[in-house]
Amino acid sequence: MACVRPSSTCLVWIxxxxxxxxxxxxxxxxxxxxxxxxxxxxxxxxxxxxxxVELDTAPPGVVFWRAILQWLGGRxxxxxxxxxxxxxxxxxxxxxL
Length: 97
Fold this sequence. Notes:
Blueprint: H1 8-27, H2 33-44, H3 60-80
Helix pairs in contact: 1-2, 1-3, 2-3
């Protein structure tokens, strides 16, 4: 049986989430690295799931970091689907945001 080798795209998403989880863990908003990784991957993939308890009372830095992760995830998703620089129905090109 051949060994399945993950694609570089898959590795980038996993490594990115692994590093983006560190500020969440260091902030004390989540108790385990697994929760921090889940929170980071959730933000980067824009799923909206969260494990942060009492998000309304979370420190502003945590809320800001989550917002940045979701923004980055939205930009990556926007880029993956070819929406940047795409032409509209009349053939006009749109500039990248």
